Amino acid sequence: MPAFIISRILQAIPVLLIVGFIAFALFAFVGDPVNIMLGTSYTEADRVRMTHELGLDQPFLVQYIKFIWAVLHGEFGVSYRLARPVSSLIAERLPATAELSLAAALFAMLVGIPAGVYTGIYRNAFTSRVFMVLSLVGVSLPTFLIGILLILVFSVLLGWLPSYGRGTTVAIGGWTTGLLTVSGLKALVLPAITLGLFQMTLIMRLVRAEMLEVLRSDYIKFARARGLTNRAIYFGHALKNTLVPVITVAGLQLGGIVAFSIVTETVFQWPGMGLLLVQSIQVGDIPVMSTYLLLVAVLFVIINLIVDMLYFAVDPRLRVGRAR
Description:
- By secondary structure, the chain is mainly alpha-helical.
- The protein contains 14 helices and two strands.
- The chain folds into two domains: about 1-70, no CATH class; about 85-324, MetI-like (MetI-like fold, Orthogonal Bundle).
- It has a two-stranded antiparallel sheet with strand order 1-2.
- About 30% of the residues are buried.
């Protein structure tokens, strides 16, 4: 296992370097940071001074090496829009995005897997058909429309849940959380459902398809012939073999939840990294945009590593093959 982890990390290094190069190129050649930071009233001397302070008068290779060195030390430059270090802005917005993404992922897994198992076992039941119809709705509707509909029903018409913001938060060290307050939990419900609905329907349909395929296999027929109970067959044999492709999709979807939380955070004005990215795109704040790109790349690399490790825990064939 340690050798496997090291090999995966070594494979991830070139990927991160390529993403870092793209982020730096975006930082270096898109927009004019000097005009953004100085505004409209400045002299040529001010422009020369700002160009020197930002290091834009140095060769491209030198700028790239300094960029990578700064990233390795946790420095991502200064925001053009807010004139603050990007690392501090990300640290402020990260808790909101992390809590929203985890809540959406839990909703997708806790609802999608049981619904997929149920519709796979009782595929001709009326409730299974209802679940499948609802899953089509969840896959077909765009995220922003789902969020607007939820706001209309639960915020405007019923008045049960807030339509924007994060609610009351509590600071625990350097982490701010809304999970410890009633208003924070209420504010989390609608964005989490909006963000996790597509992933939930995808997981449900995948689990259902895998369950239908596994239940038709020969070893399930042999287990029935041995007299095993339905519970042992469904959850002890079929579900365990179903989880291998589900882990892959669920892991990638977790990264997608973080990467594509932009729309949800914009609809609900959720103060996370997605909303920060949208605000930065509007003014061409390249340091924030490039930092977001790097963080998403690192997140996907970590998730892929965790997914590969989970394979060994779920599928014993991989452990046997690795040992041989």
